[in-house]
Each structure stands twice: as structure tokens, then as C-alpha cells.
Amino acid sequence: MSYRIQVAETEQVFFVERGETLLQAAQRAGVALRHDCQLGGCGTCRIRLLDGQVRYDEEPFGLAPDEAAAGYALACQAQPQADLVISTARDDEACAEPARHRAVVRAVRPLSADVLHVELEVPGAGTLDYRPGQYLKLLSSEGLARSFSMASVPRDGRIDLHVRRIPGGAFTDGILPRMRAGDAIEVELPLGSFFYRARDYRPLLMVATGTGLAPIKAILESLMDDPDCPPVSLYWGMRQAQDLYLHGEIPAWGDRLYDFRYAPVLSRAGADWQGRRGYVHDAALADLGDLSEYAIYLCGSPDMIRDARAAFIAHGASPDHLYADSFTFQHPC
Fold it and tell me: Family per UniProt (predicted)?
């Protein structure tokens, strides 16, 4: 049995076979649906059901119960239970189309025991067209493709990456550490829908774990010295103090951001740690309480994003002003 799916805005029609998701069927039919992680975590593929119902093999953590009750679904995980009419309308900001470039490695250096700073340059490209917060793909000569958020604002063809080394990973523990200045690698960018929405003009709550700090750093760099910069609260979760690879640099961001608050939070802190302990989203809730007025950006582990999304919406956060980028390991890394 197949189900008929109609896209309200374009009147396109495609059919979903048993066991397929909406996104899989749309791709097979050549119907473009916005998507990103394809794991139910980022929320990029969110659609609205105008008619019909869907089911999930497992409830996606990128969709809050209140959103599902309001008729929203995630196309990458949803399976129809009847013919559907869906809306893909989103009052969003346009991004440049992805393109491939030949990049040159300018530097690879450690930021911590397991995080590398990779500096790339795309010669002759001028200022690259991407939104701070988006990501790129590195395409190795061995045929591996890996996604990494860009940790810098567009400038002179230069791109900074924060890459966590995964022990035994073919890419992060194999290819990248061997790279030297002058080496070439193919890149594809820009990708993703995680970027700053200036139109929200709300106080910003930025919550990151691990190298999820990278795209948030890019967003905050883009707001430095901006007279329209809203108040910013940055909560960064790590396990131990030595993992906070930019801890010494971040407080100085407050000199160029409006009303900046920075709170590092450790889940496995040693006895000498004098700062916050526990889960990073719990620390944000303890400080801020009602989140109904905030625009919220979450980036990092899928578990953090799932738990933070649910907790924040329960404390008043607007799903329409909550943006997430889930970092999921791509094996072999």
C-alpha cells in the first residue's frame, strides 16, 4: 500500500511506500524537502500536517510533544498512516547554494588533548558566502566525507574548524592529524540551517556541548561590535576543566558583545573546580527560569539537545524560536 502526499505550496504530489519515511519518498520522487541530519535531531525537516496523520518507529527527539500536538512532524522520521497534505512553508532567510571548492590547509594545531584547530583557505574565492553557524563537508581523496561546523565568520576565503579527534577514527584520527600546511582538500559549503535569525530580535540563549561551541562562536563573532546585538547568555558544557579549550578566550568576547554572560558547566568536575556543575541545560534553567522571551540556539550532543529542548519548552520556550544542530558521529570518523 502506498500513500499520496501533496505539498500544499507547490501542489507537487509523491507517493510513500510502506516502511518509507516522507523524506525518503520525496527524494526518490525528486521532490525537494528541506533536511539536514536525517536522524530526527535537528528539526530542519519540520513540516506541518494539514490533513492526515503520521507515525514514528521511535519518537524523534527533535520534535517536542507540543509541536506534534500542534500538527508538526519531522519528514526524515515520519511514516504516513493515510494520504497527507503537508505544508513546507517557512518564513526563513535564504542561504547560498552549496558549491564545491578546492581548499588549502594553512594550519593544524591542537586546542586541547582531543580537539584540533584546522585552518583552511579557499584561494581566489574572496569572501565566502555562508551564514555564521552553517557547516561544510570535507571530501578526502580517500572518498570520505565528513561534516564540520565553521567556527569563523566569512573573511578572505579563510575558514576555521574545531575538530574533535575520535580515537581510531579514519578521518579525525587518521587523515586530519597527517595534514600539513599547503595540503589540498575538497570542501562543499555552505550547508545546514543553523544560523542566526536577526529578525527574532530576542535575548539569545546559546547552549553548547563539546565542539558544538564552534558554530555558536561564529554566530557571536558576527554580532561583535554590532549596535543591534541583543543580550547574550552562553552556556558551554564539558566533562572536565581541561576540555574547555577556549575558556581563557571567551570572557573577552564580552568586551564586544552587548550584555554578555558566560557560564562553563562541567558534568565530571574535579574537586578543584569552583564553577557550575551538572548538566548544562539545567544550569541555564536555574539562572533564567522563564524562557518565553528568548531565541535559543542548541548545538552539541543529541542527548543534550533532546533534554534541553524538552526542558526549555516546558519552561515557556517558543518552538518557533528554538534552533538546533545535533552533532552525530559519522562512523568510521
Answer: Belongs to the Fre/LuxG FAD/NAD(P) flavoprotein oxidoreductase family.
Radius of gyration over every alpha carbon of the chain, rounded to an integer in angstroms: 20
Residue in this structure with the C-alpha cell 539569545, named with its chain if needed? 204
Element holding 285 (H helix, E strand)? helix 280-288
**CATH fold of the domain at 198-326:** Rossmann fold (3.40.50)
Please tell me the distance from the alpha carbon of residue 290 to that of residue 298, in angstroms, as a whole number: 17
Distance (Å, whole) CA 5 – CA 18: 13
Can you give the pLDDT at residue 143?
83
Please tell me the class of the 2-87 domain. Answer: alpha beta
**Do 129 and 154 meet the contact criterion of CB atoms below 8 Å apart?**
yes
Q: pLDDT, tens digit, for every residue of 220-229?
A: 999 999 999 9
Domain ranges in the chain? 2-87, 99-191, 198-326
What predicted TM-score, i.e. pTM, was given to this entire model? 0.84
pLDDT digits over 37-71, tens only? Answer: 788 877 778 899 999 999 999 988 778 777 888 89
> What CATH number does domain 99-191 carry, 2.60.120.560, 2.40.30.10, 3.30.450.40, 1.10.150.390?
2.40.30.10
> Nearest CA to 204 among 229, 236, 237?
229
